[in-house]
Amino acid sequence: MKKLMVAAAAVACAFAAAAEDGLLVKCGDTLAFLGDSITQQGQESPDGYVNLVLRSLAVDGVYVKPVKAGVSGHKSNDMLARLDRDVLTKKPKVMTLSCGVNDVWHQDNNRGVSLEDYQKNISAIFDKCAASNCQVVVLTATMFEEREMEKSKHNVTLAPYNEWLRAEAKRRGYPVADLNADMWKAHAADPSVRLTRDNVHMLPAGNRLMARGVLRALGMAEDRVAALDWESWKPVWVLCRFDLKPDADRAAYLAKTKAVLAAVRAEPGCCEYRLLGDAETDWDKPQRFGDRTFWMLEKWRSLPELKAHLASPHMKDFGPSVAPMRAGSTFHVLEDVLP
Fold it and tell me: How far is the C-alpha of 147 from the C-alpha of 199, rounded, in Å?
C-alpha cells in the first residue's frame, strides 16, 4: 500500500503543480458559490455543477475549502442581503456568482427585480467582494429552456440582464463563465438534448455544461476540462487491513486515525470512510482477529478520486506517521460485480 500511495502522490503532485499554474484557486483556498436554487441543487447532488467543480479540482490535486451558498428562490436583493453572513465572513479567495434567473422569472408574480435594481444589487455585491479581497467569477444567468426559446418572454427579458453582466464584468476585469451562451450553443448543436428538467433546473447534462464553464473561468486548461469524463466515473470500494506491532500504542494509533477522519470525509469524492474492528457477538462462527487488527472500509465516487485521496496533503502526512506502528497491511480496490 505504501508504494501505491507514493506513486499516486507523485502523479497527483505533478497534476497539481501544472493545474495551479493557471488557476485562480490553490490548495487550501476557500472557494464560495453564491446563487439560487440552480446552485443549491448543484451543491446538494454529488453530480451537481458545484460538486463536479470541487471533485474535478481535487482530482488534479487542488483541494479547496468550499462555501456552498445557493438558496432556492433567491434573487439579487436576497443575495446582497446575506452576502456578508453566508460568504464574506468565511473569507473566500474566490466566489462564483450565479444570479438573474429569479430576478426575471419572479416577474410573473410581481416579485421579480427590475433591470435597474438588478444592476444596483449586483454592483453592490461586486463592491463588497472587492473590499474583502474576494475575486468574483461571474456566471451569466442560464437560459429558460422553453418552446421557441428565442421568442420566449423569459429569455427576451433576461437578455439585457446578461448583456449588462458581461459588460460590467469586463469593465471590472472579472472572469466570466458565459453559461447562457454555452447553453444556446449546445442547443444549436443538438436540439434533442435537454439540459433542464423543468425549463430552469439542471439535468445531468446541464450540470456538466455548467461545471465545464466554471472550471474554464477558474483557469483550468482547456485540454484538462475537455478530458474530464464524469459520465464514465463509477464508484469503487476499498478494504484495507492493518495489523499493529506488538509494541505499538493502540490508543495512539486510534488517535492519529481519528484526527484525519474529518479531512478525508470532507473530500468531495468520499462516500464512506470507517475504521472497523471485531464486533462483539454471541456467535461461534465468525473468525476473530483481535483488538490489534483493524479494517478500513471506504467508498469513493470514482477511481480518479480514490487516487487523488491517496495523494492528498492529509494522507501524505498520515501515512508515514502510522506506518512504523503497523506489522503489516493489505489494500484492495473493489467494484460492483452485480450492479
Answer: 9
Looking up cell 465545464 gives 212
Residue 203 CB: number of other CB atoms within 10 A?
15
301-333 exposure pattern, b = at least 16 Cβ within 10 A, e = fewer:
bbebbbbbbbbbbbbbebbeebeebbeeeebee
**Distance separating the N- and C-terminal Cα atoms of the chain:** 27
pLDDT tens string 254-301: 999 999 999 999 999 999 999 999 998 888 777 889 999 999 999 999
What is the C-alpha separation between 71 and 73, in angstroms, rounded?
6
- CA trace torsion 124, 96, 39, 207 (10° rounding): 150
- E strand spans, the chain: 30-35, 65-70, 94-98, 135-139, 176-177, 236-244, 270-276, 293-300, 326-334
- Residue 113: phi and psi, rounded to 5, are -125, 125
**DSSP3 helix / strand / coil % (the chain, rounded to 5):** 50, 15, 30
Supply the pTM of this predicted model: 0.90
Name all domains of the chain by residue range, CATH numbers in brackets. 20-231 (3.40.50.1110), 233-334 (3.30.70.100)
